[in-house]
Design brief:
By secondary structure, the protein is an alpha+beta fold. The protein contains six helices and six strands; from the N terminus they run ααββββββαααα. The strands form two sheets. The chain has a three-stranded antiparallel β-sheet, with no helix packed on it. Strands 4-5-6 form a three-stranded antiparallel β-sheet, with helices on one face. Strand 2 and strand 3 form a beta hairpin. It starts with a helix and ends with a helix. 12% of the residues are buried.
Length: 222
């Protein structure tokens, strides 16, 4: 959280300095932009400070940047620690996030219950213990929610598999794209291996095929 707040503050100072230093902008545009930017950053700052996850004997209360959620213990279908796929692209981001799943299969991230702010294994154990105790003796999983959860997780896993295949395929695709520069090929094959075809068609096709096959496999295995 503190890193994000510093990014907001430093980013705002940088933008203000750039805009005020632009002599070719009309004053009305400059100050309108600055007011809008400061309002947006102020809201982000406020919303970030007020994000929270709290629990009591009745429910899990989640306050995110845009909404509040109340998950009654008897409505919770599962609580899981999951790898954060965005961590690979964000320095300092949490590697593990904790999500709760609602009666309708909705997936709710629990703010600050991650490996940056807490001991995830310990906190997850506490949450699971409270859920087991407070959900009621007659609690049973909702079959429809289980299907929704499984399909969503299969889609997310398939998308990640597609991105992994795309990253692993960049080098082979680049080699194919450069092959006509070093090898005499038939005219039709040279046109097929053009940069536009290889990267514009081959790369999306690789991603799509991997994602579809992964999704179908995950549904079948589940």
């Amino acid at each position: 959280m503190h890193a994000f707040l510093w990014v907001i503050a430093l980013g705002t100072l940088s933008v203000v300095g750039v805009v005020l230093g632009a002599d070719d902008l009309p004053a009305s545009v400059t100050y309108s932009f600055l007011l809008g930017w400061l309002a947006l950053m102020g809201w982000l700052f406020y919303a970030t400070l007020h994000c929270s996850t709290t629990v009591d004997i009745k429910a899990i209360h989640v306050r995110s940047m845009v909404r509040r959620r109340r998950l009654a213990w008897e409505d919770v279908q599962d609580i899981r620690a999951e790898i954060n796929p965005a961590a690979a692209m964000q320095s300092g981001a949490a590697q593990v996030l904790v999500h709760a799943y609602g009666r309708d299969g909705s997936k709710v991230m629990l703010p600050f219950v991650d490996d940056v702010h807490v001991n995830v294994e310990r906190e997850l154990g506490v949450l699971l213990g409270a859920w087991t105790e407070l959900r009621g003796e007659d609690w049973a999983p909702d079959a429809r929610a289980a299907v929704v959860i499984h399909r969503r997780n299969a889609r997310q896993g398939a998308v990640m598999a597609g991105f992994v295949a795309l990253m692993l395929g960049i080098i082979p695709l680049t080699v194919l794209m450069l092959l006509p520069l070093f090898v005499d090929l038939p005219g039709w094959l040279e046109s097929v291996l053009s940069p536009l075809t290889v990267m514009g068609v081959g790369a999306p096709l690789l991603f799509a095929l991997t994602a579809v096959l992964s999704y179908r496999g995950r549904l079948r295995d589940g």
